[in-house]
Amino acid sequence: MKLARLALLSICLAAMSIANASAQEVSSEKRAEIERLLEITGALAVGQQMSSFFVARLAQAIRKDNPNAPQHVIDAIPQEVNAVIA
Asked: Is the pLDDT of residue 2 over 80?
């Protein structure tokens, strides 16, 4: 249960920081440089790895805490997590 709470908290914090960052205007030149930096440093791959890790752990925690959870809930986890990460 603690792992599920930690994962959920992490996702919420990421969503809040994304919402805050998106509220600021970014020039197309700056956006291109940011994307280039993310690509060069491999940050995008790290984000995808973290997403996969959280998805797997969150699904396990939900199944453990609530074995009768509907399958559509488990199936929705990757889509929702990846939407936040993207």
From this structure: no
